[in-house]
């Protein structure tokens, strides 16, 4: 992801890309002409205002704590840390110093999900009954240090809480290992949110079909978001009465109108960086905070524990404060 961050930052209004840290150098020229440094200490010597942490997940805690200690704001790629304890240390380090920090949960900036969230907030769906996500495709060779839960499922955990404004209260999961790596390649999880809605997540690296699917079903119908194409569609419930006495007691639904929304489609990574830039400048900006990122890591840890123990895990319900910083 580092090369994509560098590309966006190099052209971002109000921001100057002054340095890139990569101990292996920049043989592909992805640094956009910025100096390529070997250590975080060298970057801090440049007097940077904020930094983007796009190193392997296992190093997020170490690098993030260095930045916090130097009083530098940070946008940390997801997941915020490799463990709940690491995430908690980062939250404490940045919050105690009053520093702006965020997590790169990029799906929050997907046009389809941003539109979906605003429509749910406006009450267009009514009560939310269920959230279903499917995120599957071939193995990404860029990933070596975590499994599919921490790398991919964290997207779905975060976006579910963000679009609904709710948090997880329980989760149960199964995983399998088929690629010969020490980490899981597939997870299937079901759970419940603080507002009573059910959730279902299917995530894998074992499918030749690439799919990014999110559906939210409620009392007025179903929203379906395809985050690969950034399309959002609404299937409404038809208002149909029945004279069949045996069915009158059953409150069923039938297919009504289908609407595919026209949505402005800006690059999610650019939107993410615009929001974080604004947050650093002290302007209201709907970024994913470190505390929200920590909550996602907690749920991911519960997913892995459930898969390992065969038990459903209970989680403390908390208000999902996802409306600005």
UniProtKB/TrEMBL annotation:
Annotated GO MF terms: nucleotide binding
Annotated ranges, domain Gfo/Idh/MocA-like oxidoreductase N-terminal: 2-105
Xref: Gene3D superfamilies: Dihydrodipicolinate Reductase, domain 2, NAD(P)-binding Rossmann-like Domain
Domain GFO/IDH/MocA-like oxidoreductase residues, every copy: 114-223
Family matches, as PANTHER family: BILIVERDIN REDUCTASE A
Name this protein carries in UniProt: Gfo/Idh/MocA family oxidoreductase
């Amino acid at each position: 992801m580092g090369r994509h961050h560098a590309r966006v930052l190099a052209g971002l209004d109000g921001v100057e890309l002054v340095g890139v840290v990569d101990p292996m150098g920049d043989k592909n020229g992805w640094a956009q002409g910025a100096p390529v440094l070997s250590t975080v200490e060298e970057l801090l010597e440049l007097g940077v205002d904020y930094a983007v942490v796009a190193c392997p997940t296992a190093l997020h805690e170490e690098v993030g704590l260095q930045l916090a200690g130097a009083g530098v704001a940070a946008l940390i790629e997801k997941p915020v840390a490799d463990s709940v304890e690491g995430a908690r240390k980062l939250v404490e380090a940045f919050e105690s110093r009053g520093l702006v920090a965020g997590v790169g949960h990029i799906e929050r900036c997907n046009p389809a999900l941003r539109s979906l969230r605003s429509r749910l907030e406006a009450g267009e769906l009514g009560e939310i009954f269920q959230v279903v996500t499917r995120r599957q495709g071939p193995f990404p060779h860029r990933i070596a240090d975590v499994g599919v839960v921490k790398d991919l499922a964290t997207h779905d955990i975060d976006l579910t809480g963000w679009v609904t404004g709710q948090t997880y209260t329980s989760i149960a999961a199964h995983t399998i290992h088929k690629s010969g790596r020490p980490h899981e390649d597939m997870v299937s999880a079901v759970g419940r949110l603080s507002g009573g809605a059910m959730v279902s997540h299917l995530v894998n690296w074992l499918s030749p079909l690439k799919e990014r699917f999110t559906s939210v079903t409620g009392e007025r119908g179903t929203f379906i978001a395809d985050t690969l194409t950034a399309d959002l569609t609404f299937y409404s419930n038809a208002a149909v009465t029945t004279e069949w006495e045996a069915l009158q007691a059953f409150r069923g639904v039938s297919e009504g109108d289908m609407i595919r929304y026209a949505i402005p489609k800006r690059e999610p990574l650019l939107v993410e960086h615009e929001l974080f830039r604004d947050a650093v400048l002290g302007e209201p900006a709907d970024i994913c905070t470190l505390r929200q990122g920590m909550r996602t890591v907690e749920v991911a840890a519960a997913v892995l524990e459930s898969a390992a123990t065969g038990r459903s895990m209970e989680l403390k319900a908390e208000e999902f404060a996802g409306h600005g910083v």
